[in-house]
User: Which sequence fits this backbone?
């Protein structure tokens, strides 16, 4: 008996003109949805196909180019609510050896977390693409969902773009040069998507329903080279005094949270503190993790971007 052909090995992902190298495995899942007719006498009579989508997920390797972060990793903002996340750009999973798999329509359905730390690469958690069939074809076409073809290995990977500088944060004039613990600054974007389906054709499109942003970090200093006392920590949380956050007030205002490191500056223009904690223990930072969340800011009725990225 002949041995089976072994299919295995890592891959990179490309979408349009962007190539994503990954920290770990790439997962490609064909998600088949079904329904089942019921009979009072015989129960469920067996599944029937309803619709299909393809999900591709991975954690990016950490290659950071400030100018393209927004479009390639974090494209969703409140201004895009109600629009399609699907683009007519090829989504390709290309292994180092073997055949690449190409989908002609895809979009980012889950954005990764951005982890800014001198002790970690820039991304944590998976990002996810949803791919749909070719809208110009009938599902019975042999290339409706995907095309598999031979590919040559990509050679564009560069380790120099994996940034891990020392980062500090500023929020207003009082809290500048804030340093984190070893976890760094963790930005967690969120987005909700909804599918538009047809009885006869399945999933036709995927629409952005909402987008939001929060940032978590443990502030060790108030200003550069200055420690943060319990009183400083309470002030950062707007707990009391003249700056107290009162019931009914909006979380987030015109104050930006700005995180700066060599090679990258992240600016979230309307962020305010929500949760915080103090910890009392041996060899443990007393300052607990603070969570900042954003509000939707408008300019002449148009929602602004949740955050921006520039090189430094």
Assistant:
């Amino acid at each position: 008996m002949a041995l089976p052909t072994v299919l295995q090995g890592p891959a990179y992902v490309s979408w349009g003109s962007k190539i994503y190298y990954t920290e770990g495995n790439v997962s490609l899942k064909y998600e088949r949805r079904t329904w089942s007719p019921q009979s009072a006498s015989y129960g469920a009579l067996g599944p029937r196909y309803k619709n299909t989508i393809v999900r591709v997920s991975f954690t990016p390797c950490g290659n950071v180019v400030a100018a393209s972060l927004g479009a390639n990793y974090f494209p969703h903002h409140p201004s895009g609510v109600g629009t399609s996340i699907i683009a007519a750009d090829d989504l390709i999973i290309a292994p180092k050896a073997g055949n690449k798999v190409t989908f002609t329509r895809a979009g980012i359905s889950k954005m990764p977390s951005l982890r800014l730390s001198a002790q970690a690469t820039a991304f944590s958690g998976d990002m996810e693409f949803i791919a749909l069939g070719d809208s110009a074809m009938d599902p019975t076409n042999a290339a409706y969902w995907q095309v598999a073809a031979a590919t040559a290995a990509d050679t564009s990977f560069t380790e120099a773009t994996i940034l891990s500088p020392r980062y500090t944060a500023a929020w207003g004039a009082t809290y500048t040069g804030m340093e984190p613990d070893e976890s760094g600054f963790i930005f967690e974007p969120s987005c909700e998507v909804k599918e538009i389906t047809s009885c006869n054709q399945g999933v036709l499109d995927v629409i952005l329903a909402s987008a939001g942003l929060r940032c978590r970090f443990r502030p060790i200093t108030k200003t550069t080279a200055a420690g943060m006392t319990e009183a400083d920590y309470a002030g950062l949380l707007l707990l009391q005094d003249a700056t107290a956050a009162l019931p009914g007030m909006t979380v987030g205002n015109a104050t930006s949270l700005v995180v700066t490191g060599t090679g990258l500056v992240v600016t979230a223009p309307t962020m305010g503190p929500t949760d915080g904690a103090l910890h009392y223990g041996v060899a443990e930072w007393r300052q607990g993790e603070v969570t900042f969340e954003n509000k939707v800011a408008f300019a002449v009725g148009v929602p602004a971007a949740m955050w921006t990225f520039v090189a430094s």
Residues 11-164 form one domain. The CA atoms of residues 2 and 16 lie 40 Å apart.
